[in-house]
Design a protein that fits this description.
This protein is α+β, with helices and mostly antiparallel strands. The chain has 3 domains: about 35 residues; about 100 residues, Beta-Lactamase, CATH 3.30.450; about 60 residues. The chain is about 55% helix and about 25% strand.
Length: about 210
């Protein structure tokens, strides 16, 4: 309420403004912010928030700490390229330029590097958004290192089985050729035996 007074301080009345709607909107905004923060923290997927203009890391969740081996304190406020978690700088630059041009990237596969130097493969999903006149990047990383290893192992198994199958087919082909050759030789021997018997019979008739 805003009081209305005379110059001598006599209260004439007051103006009251209903702020119920504003309070409701603020409450909904705070609730949504808290809900997002909980989802951000509890997500098993590594998530990072960074600014576009300065390319600084604004926030990361626990899953990001686990994936990269850096603590949140080591990451927040740092210049993104200075944190060497992209094994290939060219991949990083290409992803960043694609994001700026298209507003989002999805399933971009890249090689990441942890604080300890271990490397792995991951998929990144990122999107640009604006808040209070500034652009930010919300990124999510999915570690596919084990899946990649399994896929490579599966490909090796398939290649090994294919090689074995090809060898078996080759062995069968050779066996078939040998069998056919054996049958041919048996046939030739039979014909030769028949020819000799006929010659012996003819010789016997001549003697008699």
């Amino acid at each position: 309420a805003f009081p209305i007074q005379t110059a001598s301080g006599y209260l004439l009345g007051s103006i009251t403004r209903d702020i119920t709607e504003r309070k409701r909107i603020e409450l909904e905004r705070d609730t949504a912010r808290q809900l997002f923060q909980k989802m951000f923290e509890l997500s098993p997927v590594a998530i990072a928030l960074s600014s576009v203009a300065e390319r600084r890391i604004v926030d990361v969740n626990t899953a990001t700490e686990r994936l990269l081996g850096y603590s949140r304190a080591e990451l927040i406020g740092q210049h993104s390229p200075a944190i060497d978690y992209w094994a290939d700088p060219e991949e990083r630059q290409h992803a960043f330029e694609t994001l700026l041009a298209e507003g989002r990237i999805a399933r971009y596969e890249f090689t990441f590097k942890t604080k300890s130097g271990r490397t792995g493969r991951a998929l990144i999903f990122a999107e640009l958004f604006e808040q209070q006149g500034e652009q930010y990047i919300l990124s999510a990383f999915v570690d596919i290192t084990e899946l990649q290893s399994y896929r490579e192992h599966l490909e090796e198994l398939v290649a090994e089985r294919t090689a074995r199958l090809q060898q078996s087919l080759e062995d069968l082909r050779r066996f078939a050729l040998l069998a056919a050759d054996r049958e041919l030789r048996i046939k030739e021997l039979r014909e030769e035996n028949k020819r000799l018997r006929e010659q012996l019979k003819a010789a016997g008739r001549d003697i008699l």
